[in-house]
Amino acid sequence: MLLTNMATFFPLALLLFLHHPSPATPQTSSFSSSSGRQGEWRLLHASIGISAMHMQLLRNNKVVIFDRTDFGPSKLTLSGGHCRHDPADTVLQNDCTAHSVLYDVGQNTFRPLMIQTDTWCSSGSVLSDGTLVQTGGYNDGDRVVRTLEPCDDNSCDWTEHPGYLSARRWYATNQILPDGRIFIVGGRRQFDYEFYPRSSGGSSTSSHTFWLNFLRETRDNDENNLYPFVHLLPDGNLFIFANTRAISLDYKRNRVVKEFPSIPGGDPRNYPSSGSSVMLPIDENRSNEAEVMICGGAPPGAYSKATHGSFVRASSTCGRLKVTDKNPRWAMESMPMARVMGDMVILPTGDVIIINGAGAGTAGWENAGKPVTRPVIYHPQGTEGSRFSVMSPSSRPRLYHSTAVLLADGRILVGGSNPHVFYNFTGVQYPTDLSLEAFSPPYLAAENQQLRPKIENANEVLGYKKSFSVSFTVSSFLGPNSVSVRIVAPSFATHSQGMNQRMVVLKTRDLRQAAAGAYRVTAVGPSAREVAPPGWYLLFVVHAGIPSSGMWVKI
Question: Which range has the worst mean pLDDT, 8-17, 112-121, 457-466?
Fold first, then answer.
């Protein structure tokens, strides 16, 4: 639907510069100008009953959160007298507690969900219709697919499909594809990939898997090839990074089309050395360049040393690789502090926040120390050497099994941290954390209110290469070159992974004033499914570096 009560339009100028937006739930918190410059932390719940090992924001502004089932009872009872009976569970066969919750962002409430089989260290993606598909796990859950369809009442819950996967997927990675399927790759000692839904042809499970020798080649004595980083490139191929190496994979032909240079320095970046990765925003106003950024990790042998109580300083470097260049080369930068197990989240502005993690050690139980409680924000378009800004610290360490996702209002939802085999709240340096926090980046500070645009109306369904309009208001307008329109695919977060996370800066054609403080910008839908696969996205208007609240749109 388009805004219809606009006054007579008059052209201002062609939109040149694009930037981010901010989500659909209104931001009600107030921020002082002093705290706003470095962001602000707010505790949402001291306990949600489980530790947030996995998180996914859905199109109705509810967040699915889940842990694992094989540590015993959680601190949240299942509703309606329900209990889980699982003879295969290694710890508790009869369990009346929840291991998953659905968090309502707008209401700041949560309710238990029912998981039957073990989801430990699993993966996920959201289908084009908004259904969350979670794949794999451990023990009796390692070949299970679980689905959850969004609902606005309390009726939705997990549906399990036992034995659907052709191979054991524990520490695997997912990526949504242009045709709507999910690419599922890797896992412990699993050097292959498969798809969901699987093809109808083939009579055996082996016919549904495809060998990827690259994963075997990148496994070292500490593994360091688990949870490989995967990004869909604009040419339709997949960028896959494991340990220190990267390839471009034509998954349709099961062929490696390119091997990129190894990241300099020799530090492994994947689990258990656990750096993090994003593909920087694709800008449709320029040629569709694709650039991947990887930050943090741990030196070779760090995991083995950590298991013996010696925590080696984490990696302090980031590497950027413009994979669409003819001869790509890594450009290395240093973070303000070393970090392993950090989460990288693309902000509505196109900047990247790096949050959570430790300064020494690796992923794994009891394997890290020196929590890094200060997030940093990386400005990709900034001047080299001054691209990082250090934010305010959290009072809560977020180590192994912590997560972070972008919310529609521009905040970062942060939870989890359980560096122990079971839930452990006493007698340890870093107790299991069941809380939820929100971090508000500086763009949400009260001093920016006059610059913050508000989306009044926009098309709710976008077409590829189709023009559409976004109407917005802003109190202090700084000119057409200060406005951009962006879409963001929220991530499935776990183990320093932000699976399927994606931002596209859309082409804009013109911007017209409708009335005092009211404007309409014409933008163009993504150029191809390879640039933005079909599905639900958060659409943002960004004005002078300050994002609006995001609006859900479907491509």
Answer: 8-17
C-beta of residue 278 within 8 angstroms of C-beta of residue 335? no
Amino acid at 389: S
| Per-residue pLDDT tens over the stretch 445-481 | 999 999 999 999 999 999 999 999 999 999 999 999 9
Rounded CA Rg of the chain = 22
For every residue of 99-144, DSSP letters joined together read SEEEEETTTTEEEEE---S--TT-EEEE-TTS-EEEE--SGGGTT-
CB 185 within 8 A of CB 201: no
Contact predicate 41/60, CB 8 Å:
no
Share of the chain above pLDDT 90, in %: 91
Buried-state track 124-147, b at ≥16 Cβ within 10 A, e below 16: bbbbeebbbbbbbbbbbbbbbbbb
**Residue 104, amino acid:** D
555: pLDDT strictly greater than 90:
yes
Please write the tens of the pLDDT for every residue from 297-330. 999 999 999 999 999 999 999 999 999 999 999 9
Segment 273-290, tens digit of pLDDT:
999 999 999 999 988 899
Mean pLDDT of the chain: 92
Contact 468, 507 (CB under 8 A): no
pLDDT of residue 36: 78
Q: In terms of C-beta density within 10 A (0-12 exposed, 13-18 middle, 19 or more buried), how is residue 510 classed?
A: middle
**Residue 57: closest CA among 464, 506, 535:** 535
In this structure, which amino acid lies at residue 387? R
Looking only at the bridges linking them, the beta strands covering 436-440 and 40-45 are antiparallel
| pLDDT band, residue 201 (cuts 50/70/90) | low
Q: Are 213 and 254 in contact (CB under 8 A)?
A: no
Alpha carbon distances (Å) from 19 to 282, 287, 350, 523, 546: 11, 17, 6, 13, 8
What DSSP character marks residue 271? B
Is residue 523 a contact partner of residue 551, using CB atoms and an 8 Å limit?
A: no
Distance, in Å, from the CA atom of 308 to the CA atom of 300, rounded to the nearest integer, reads 15
Q: Which residue has the higher pLDDT, 24 or 262?
A: 262
List Cβ<8 Å contacts ≥24 apart for 205-214: 205/166, 205/167, 206/166, 208/166, 209/166, 209/167, 210/251, 210/254, 211/254, 212/185, 212/186, 212/240, 212/249, 214/240, 214/242, 214/245, 214/247, 214/249, 214/256
Contacts of 328 (CB under 8 A, 6+ apart): 260, 261, 321, 322
CA distances from 215 to 112, 113, 123, 190, 240 (A): 37, 34, 17, 8, 10
Return phi, psi of residue 141, to 5°: -105, 0
Burial of 201 (0-12, 13-18, 19+ CB in 10 A): exposed
Strands (E), 19-90: 40-45, 54-57, 62-66, 84-85
Task: Report how far residue 258's alpha carbon sits from residue 72's, in angstroms, rounded to the nearest whole number.
Answer: 46
Asked whether residue 269 carries a pLDDT value surpassing 60, the answer given is: yes
CA distance to 38, 172, 378, 387, per residue, from 383 (Å):
19, 36, 11, 6
